[in-house]
Amino acid sequence: YKYTNKAYDKDGNEKEITYTAIKKLKTNHYLELNYKVGEVKGYSEVKEKDIPKKARIKL
């Protein structure tokens, strides 16, 4: 599965990210992306309350 989404860093800066997953991801859930050198290396699901405030207000 290939996804393209807006992503925000801890300071609320926006970037459009394209990544793939081996399974279909859940809708209305939040992911923390491990992003290095222009590539998503991994991801994990997080709760909305755990998203940094500057990023959370942009969602």
From TrEMBL:
Taxonomic superkingdom: Bacteria
InterPro entries on file: DUF1093 (IPR006542), YxeA-like_sf (IPR036166)
Protein name: YxeA family protein
